[in-house]
Design goal:
This protein has about 160 residues and is of the alpha+beta class. Helices cover about 35% and strands about 25% of the residues. It has a six-stranded mixed β-sheet with strand order 1-2-3-4-6-5, sandwiched between helices. It starts with 9 loop residues before the first helix and ends with a helix. Residues about 60-65 have low confidence and may be disordered.
């Protein structure tokens, strides 16, 4: 969360929920969010999301014709491999449930922990000639890359 901002007040949280809920019910867009629970304590330690929005602009970095994944975890979860497990399951779910040719992840370039775990999952940097914000990193993975990554790690 330190890369996102401070905790919301109750009013801010309610407003954010309303703003998120409205696009999630549109026919062409969806946002699905899951709580991440620590099995040993049954405590919620964060959330992860899968979103797929209809492109609204010609700017490659503001449109998404592919699903995008994201995660936010409590600091107490650092160093416990929760992001790899949670996002790995979400990537697997997404490729099995959609016919998407790729999944995207975007994050603040200064978030080295996220960069590390998306690379571990097999995501690669999206190269393009389109101008993008300097402080944002874009990664993607394709089904064949995901399958190859799993096979290499198991065997």
């Amino acid at each position: 969360m330190r890369h996102i901002g401070p905790a919301f007040t109750r009013e801010q949280a309610n407003k954010a929920f309303d703003l998120t809920f409205k696009p999630s019910v549109k026919a062409k867009d969806f946002i699905k969010t899951w709580a991440i629970i620590d099995k040993s304590t049954s405590q919620s330690i964060g959330i992860q999301a899968l979103s797929w929005k209809e492109p609204t602009t010609n700017n490659l970095f503001e449109q998404s014709s592919a699903p995008e994944i994201g995660i936010m975890l409590d600091r107490s979860s650092n160093g416990k491999l929760y992001p790899e497990e949670a996002m790995g399951a979400l990537v697997e779910f997404c490729f099995k449930q959609t016919s998407s040719p790729q999944i995207k992840a975007q994050y603040f370039s200064s978030n080295f922990a996220t960069k590390r775990f998306v690379k571990k999952l097999g995501f690669i940097t999206e190269e393009t000639n389109t101008k993008k914000p300097e402080n944002i990193s874009y990664e993607f993975i394709k089904p064949e890359m995901w399958t190859q990554n799993i096979i290499e790690k198991i065997y």
